[in-house]
Specification:
This protein is of the alpha/beta class and about 400 residues long. Helices cover about 20% and strands about 30% of the residues. Bound molecules: adenosine monophosphate (AMP) and magnesium ion. Adenosine monophosphate binds near residues 248, 250 and 295. Adenosine monophosphate binds near residues 180, 182, 248 and 296.
């Protein structure tokens, strides 16, 4: 058995980075950037009005109310490009350039047009700078705004668009084959017979892999027969960067996944991790394809996918931070660790009145209880050791991807 951190290190060492490709901004969300995003303009590109109202000189209206002569209009996309003098005002709209000579914008609600629109009465004074965002106050042209290795989120899209990235360079999508093994399995659209259950792992793995940008192929269900496993694995590795299997890796009489891998000549990097749930996790390479042989229990599949396979899929795309995000939280109820394995226990998270993050361990029936696990948004990471961890202790939690 090797520790989880060592297993993750091995995964990272063995994971090659895929080539990059250029994608349209419309299809970039979720992908991992492989270029720096650099501002090609100042933001704002000119002194910009933040309100509809009048561009003024603060000094002119220090003793408001004061009347000013309206000398022009500056609209978004159609500025007024003359110089405004003392005693003058320019009608201005949100997003429009502030004319030279003006040093503040008074909002329209605090003004009143008089003399049939040739003059404006400013009802309250403003300090210089009010309602103006100065040129380059947000970003200077030439600044790096996003770095290679970052994930493109929905919030990132505006940045790409504003600096003209119609196409953006990202890591290629890994091709992933998922394969559920077990003679008890039937497809989701079938009614299980005696001694049978529906396969869920193939769908869980396909969904998780897709969340990590993979192009997923679901292989047909494989029974517990070494030759059948070998045939499917040999086929899958021809067209996949990663093969993820579930089931058949523990020590039962019909657990043939490892045997099949070994007979095919795979290089096995590890086959037992000091992890609960997920001890019999296998990591190997067959040809050029990385193989994750995950245990069959659905909760073990979720935990081991996210610790190991997700890390590899993101590293392949050049993610700077391929592992699950983690932080500290206060435990809401007592929990128990395992003597010789690190535990990852399903939890809900909330923030209490004092603003502390609270980790609430879910009641669950073990690694087969996927219905309870469905409520988890994080995993509480308990170090190996027999100790009880008391409510109120600070624990490490890792976030499941969303
Ligand atoms: P195994 O790792 O093959 O010993 O399987 C452990 C447990 O997980 C057994 O109860 C299996 O029936 C169950 N299991 C294995 N594969 C799947 C699957 N694809 N979907 C749902 N449950 C599974
Ligand atoms: Mg099995």
């Amino acid at each position: 058995m090797i520790p989880v951190t060592e297993a993750i290190q091995i995964v990272l060492q063995q994971t090659p980075q895929l080539p990059t490709e250029s994608v349209s901004i419309s299809h970039a969300r979720g992908r991992i950037l492989s270029e720096e995003i650099v501002a090609d303009t100042d933001l704002p590109p000119f002194d910009r009005a933040q309100m509809d109202g009048y561009a003024v000189r603060a000094k002119d209206i220090a003793n408001a109310p004061a009347s000013l002569k309206i000398v022009g209009e500056s609209a978004a996309g159609a500025g007024w490009h003359n110089k405004m003098n003392a005693g003058e005002a320019v009608r201005i709209m949100t997003g429009a350039p502030v004319p030279a000579g003006a040093d503040a914008v008074q909002q329209v609600e605090l003004t009143r047009e008089i003399e049939s629109g040739s003059q404006v009465e400013i009802l309250e004074s403003v300090e210089a700078g009010r309602s103006i965002v100065r040129r380059a106050a947000e970003i200077k042209s030439g600044e790096t705004v996003l770095r290679a290795g970052e994930r493109i989120t929905t919030e990132t899209i505006a940045t790409l668009a504003s600096f003209g990235y119609a196409q953006v360079k990202v890591g290629q999508r890994p091709r992933v084959a998922v394969m559920a093994t077990g003679s008890e399995l039937v497809n989701v659209d079938e009614k299980p017979g005696a001694d049978q259950i529906r396969d869920s792992n193939n769908y869980t793995l396909a969904a998780y892999a897709a969340q990590s940008n993979a192009l997923v192929e679901r292989l047909p269900l494989a029974g517990d027969h070494t030759e059948e496993l070998k045939r499917q694995m040999a086929r899958a590795v021809e067209t996949s960067d990663v093969l993820i299997t579930s089931g058949g890796v523990s020590v039962g009489v019909y657990d043939f996944t490892k045997a099949a891998l070994k007979e095919l000549g795979a290089e096995i990097f590890f086959e037992r991790v000091a992890l609960r749930p997920g001890k019999p996790t296998v990591f190997a390479r067959l040809g050029k394809t990385l193989v994750f042989g995950l245990p069959g229990n659905p909760v073990s599949v979720a935990v081991t996918f996210n610790l190991f396979a997700r890390t590899a899929l993101r590293a392949m795309q050049g993610a700077t931070d391929p592992m699950l995000a983690h932080e500290r939280a206060v435990l809401a109820r007592d929990i128990k660790g395992s003597i010789d394995r690190e535990s990852y226990l399903p939890a809900a998270l909330r923030t209490n009145e004092k603003g502390s993050l609270i980790a609430e361990p879910l009641k669950w029936g073990g690694s087969s209880d996927f219905v309870s696990f469905a409520r988890a948004i994080a995993l509480i990471n308990v170090p190996a050791g027999d100790q009880k961890i008391a409510a109120g202790s600070v624990v490490r939690v890792v976030h499941l991807p969303n």
